C-alpha cells in the first residue's frame, strides 16, 4: 500500500511538466479532430474545444458551483473522519500484535467489499445527501490510511526502539518518540491515496444514488437530457481538475514536510 512520491531519476521538474502537457495536448487534439471531422458523432463526442469552453462557462454558474461545494464538503468531512479513525486504529493494530490478531479476520472480510455496492443500503438506511455520502467515503478512505500506518510502524528502526527500552522508556513513549515519526511519511502517503478515493466516492455516490445535490448529480442529470454529453464531459473535466489540484497540493506538502525521508530513502538505495 505504501507509495513513493519521488520523481523518476534524471527527469527535471520542467521535463515532467512538459511530458504531462504533451499528453494532455495529444488527447485534446485527438478529440478535436474526431469531433470536427465527423468521424465520431458530436452528440457522443463533442470537440474538446467545445467541452473546454463549457467547463469554463460553468465557473460562472452559481448553481453548478453550489453542486461543486456540496461534493467538496462531503469529500472533506469523509476524509477528515477517516483520518481520525484510521490513524489511531492503525497505530493500535500495528503496535499491539494481540489486537491485530483478534481483529485481522474482520478487517480482511470488510476491506474487499466495494463501497459502491453499499450505496443502495446506505440510501435506504441513511437517506440522501451528506448523511449517506460521508459514511461511504469514510469506509472507502479508511483502508489506505490504516494499512499505510501499519506499514510505517513496521518500518521503524528497531535499534532506536530497543535503545529507548534499554533506558526505561515504556511502550507508549517508544511509540510517540520513534514509531510515530517513522510512520508519519507513510501516513501522509495513505492520506494522499485516500483523498483520491474519497473524491471518487463523493462523485460516484452522487451519480449512482440518483438524488440529492453535488457534482456527480450534475453529471447524472446532464446525461438524461438530449445533447447533454457536453455537460457530462465538462462536469467530468471539473472532477478531474479538482482531483489533480488536491493531489498536487498533497504531494508538495508531503515532499516538503518529509524531505528527510526522501533523502534517507535515496541514501539507502
From TrEMBL:
Belongs to the binding-protein-dependent transport system permease family. One of its GO terms (biological process) is transmembrane transport. Keywords: Cell membrane, Membrane, Transmembrane, Transmembrane helix, Transport. Pfam families: BPD_transp_1. It comes from Actinomadura soli. The keyword Thylakoid does not apply. Residues 68-250 form the ABC transmembrane type-1 domain. This is ABC transporter permease. It is a multi-pass membrane protein. One of its GO terms (cellular component) is plasma membrane. The lineage of its organism: Bacteria, Bacillati, Actinomycetota, Actinomycetes, Streptosporangiales. CDD domains: TM_PBP2. It comes from the Bacteria. It is found in: Cell membrane. The chain crosses the membrane at residues 17-35, 72-96, 116-140, 193-212, 232-251. Its main location: membrane.
